[in-house]
Amino acid sequence: MLPATFKLCAGISYRHMRNMTGLRKNAMVAIHHELNRLAGPGPSNWISQVRRRSSLLSSRIKEEDGYSEEEMSYVKQGEDALQKAIGILSEQDGWTIETVAANGDKVLSKVLPDVGKVFKLEVMLEQHPENLYEELVGKMEQMGEWNPNVKQVKILQKIGQDTMVTHEVSAETPGNVVGPRDFVSVRCAKRRGSTCFLAGMSTQHPRMPEQRGVVRAENGPTCIVMKPCAEDPNKTKFTWLLSIDLKGWIPKTIIHKVLSQTQVDFANHLRQRMANNVSMEMAHAC
């Protein structure tokens, strides 16, 4: 799940963060309280606050948990992906409708300077955000079991509660119009109040160099936002920002059609997965 412009290497230095002093627990509690307040008003408030707080939060993680420079680079990349994605989503103007399904699922697109064409899926799901978060984050490696567009998701490294590096292998499209691709991504998972975020972008990892015979695609910034429906908190307003560079010699018209259809398919597969989960829970309760 992005253009090479955003691809960052894992060797970023954070030496200046090691020298920061005076971060006290009461200050961090205040920052944490401030961030928890952000999910309510809307994405523009969230992104502006995250931008002001990210360096301070990174310093706290470094000091309190003793992360290495490599680990901190992944944390920073994940935060950057979240900031950029929410910044894109907060801009409501300029989106063009790509497709609207019979059930109301909608895919929109926009062309951004230095990024290219990005896609945004907007759907309403009959699930609480926490259940969706558990499926997409807590059970991330099981995605290949229910999403036929994904062959495998493997977590290569976890850093704390919020950050992980993953390797994903996509399936070929019908007719092999687009062959399988693999991705190495850093992912940032956050919860702010009742709203859940899962952001990501391409990275590099020593355990997963490019594989011979496999096209290494790039993505990012991407972000899934899961927010309770105002009318019914047991339903979720589900938004997925997708920006991807599949590489290879594929006409853009084909790529754009494949990506928008992939998002629609994902929503349907996720609905089916969640329905199956409910059925299994009911069967076990009997």
The average pLDDT is: 81
- Give the CATH H-level superfamily: START domain
Low-confidence stretches: 1-38, 49-56
Helix content: 25-40%
Calculate Rg over CA atoms.
19 Å
Task: Provide a concise account of the structure shown.
This protein has 286 residues and is α+β, with helices and mostly antiparallel strands. It has helices at residues 15-18, 25-36, 43-65, 69-90, 129-138, 143-146, 252-285; strands at 96-100, 106-112, 116-125, 150-159, 163-170, 181-192, 195-202, 215-216, 218-219, 222-228, 236-242, 244-245.
Descriptive notes:
With 286 residues, this protein is of the alpha+beta class. It is 38% helix and 28% strand. The strands form two sheets. Strands 1, 2, 3, 4, 5, 6, 7, 8, 10 and 11 form a ten-stranded mixed β-sheet that branches. Strands 9-12 form a two-stranded antiparallel ribbon. Helix 2 (25-36) packs antiparallel against helix 3 and helix 3 (43-65) runs antiparallel to helix 4 (69-90). The model is unreliable at 1-38 and 49-56 (pLDDT under 50). GO terms for molecular function: cholesterol binding; cholesterol transfer activity.
List keywords for this structure.
286 residues, alpha+beta, Alpha-D-Glucose-1,6-Bisphosphate, Chain A, domain 4, 10-stranded mixed beta sheet, two-stranded antiparallel ribbon, 7 helices, 12 strands, 38% helix, globular, disordered N terminus, transit peptide
Secondary structure blueprint with pairings:
Blueprint: H1 15-18, H2 25-36, H3 43-65, H4 69-90, E1 96-100, E2 106-112, E3 116-125, H5 129-138, H6 143-146, E4 150-159, E5 163-170, E6 181-192, E7 195-202, E8 215-216, E9 218-219, E10 222-228, E11 236-242, E12 244-245, H7 252-285
Parallel strand pairs: 6-8
Antiparallel strand pairs: 1-2, 2-3, 3-11, 4-5, 5-6, 6-7, 7-10, 9-12, 10-11
